[in-house]
Amino acid sequence: MDTPAAPTLPLADGHTIPVLGLGVWQVPNGPECVDAVRWALEAGYRHIDTAQAYGNEASVGRGLDESGVPREDVFVTTKFYPRSKDPVAAVEESLKRLGVDQVDLYIIHWPQRGPTWAWPGMERAHELGYARSIGVSNFSVEELDEVRAIADVAPVVNQVQLSPFEHRRALIETHRRHGIVTEAYSPLGTGRHLDDATVGEIAGRVGRTPAQVLLRWCVQNDLVVLPKSTHRERIVENAQIFDFTLSDDDMALLDGLDRTRGTDRARESKWW
Ligand code: A2P
């Protein structure tokens, strides 16, 4: 799977995950989502990140199919919607909607009703071959510790909101200690961080766009990065992040933007 356009990181279970993935949060099921997935695959992405809660798995499956890229070359993630009861029954439905036999990664979307109750079901989905790797999303250090204490199969990723403005250093450090890959969602701050003066100044100086600077910061921090766009030119632009390097000084400038004070929490405010 490791191509110049799609470098990978190793997962603790022996598999690999492409560093760049297309996020499809808030993309409605339908042509917009099908096109975004197809354009991303045409642009060299080999990783699509969806969720049961997004309601667009069918379009992700269709985009995958229409792209003509072989299924085994694409890393597909979906997330267990934790307001449902059973991770196994839920992923069976996801597989039907996606039109695949297995997802590459299945993660608990957020720790609703506590961090541990769904994990045995996630392990069962893994054992049955419905999910090649399993992990979590929006879990703090404390919640991760609780899962690891009861797990037979440990989570291999934690997907959290991450950018220079939400750096969560203590959480990332814990992930490193336990061999957990950190996935960054909303790496552009859902668009808000693109107008920041420091980001713009660096972008101008290095001849890149603000989006590319924010995404490159994630790459140089060994994060998996999941930008969302439904515009073809932006999808292409967001993939052009492996042919330049930010200097240590520019990385430090970006590090200075953190507003979380290096938190070990996954969210400052919870929606669950
Ligand atoms: P759109 O989908 O209309 O292209 P995040 O990945 O942090 O969630 O940010 C997604 C938001 O940023 C979306 O509103 C998306 O708009 C916008 N966006 C994504 N890539 C770019 C880009 N390269 N330039 C400008 N805006 C972008």
Q: Please, what is the average pLDDT?
A: 97
CATH topology heading: TIM Barrel
* Biggest beta sheet summary: 8 strands, parallel
| Amino- and carboxy-terminal Cα gap | 36 Å
Secondary-structure element sequence?
A: EEEHEHEHEHEHEHEHHEHH
Q: Point out poorly predicted stretches.
A: none
Strand content: 15-25%
Number of domains: 1
Total helices: the number is 10
How helix-rich are the residues, as a percent range?
25-40%
**Hetero compounds:** adenosine-2'-5'-diphosphate
Task: Identify the overall geometry.
Answer: globular
CATH architecture: Alpha-Beta Barrel
CATH class: Alpha Beta
DSSP E strands, number: 10
Assigned CATH superfamily:
NADP-dependent oxidoreductase domain
Sheet with most strands: strand arrangement: 3-4-5-6-7-8-9-10
Structural class: alpha/beta
Rg calculated over all Cα atoms? 18 Å
Summarize this structure as a short list of keywords or feature phrases.
272 residues; 10 strands; 10 helices; alpha/beta; eight-stranded parallel beta sheet; TIM Barrel; binds adenosine-2'-5'-diphosphate
Question: Can I get a quick summary?
Answer:
This protein has about 270 residues and is of the alpha/beta class. It has helices spanning about 30-40, 55-65, 85-100, 120-125, 140-150, 170-175, 195-205, 210-220, 230-240, 250-255, and strands at about 10, 15-20, 20-25, 45-50, 75-80, 105-110, 130-135, 155-160, 180-185, 225.
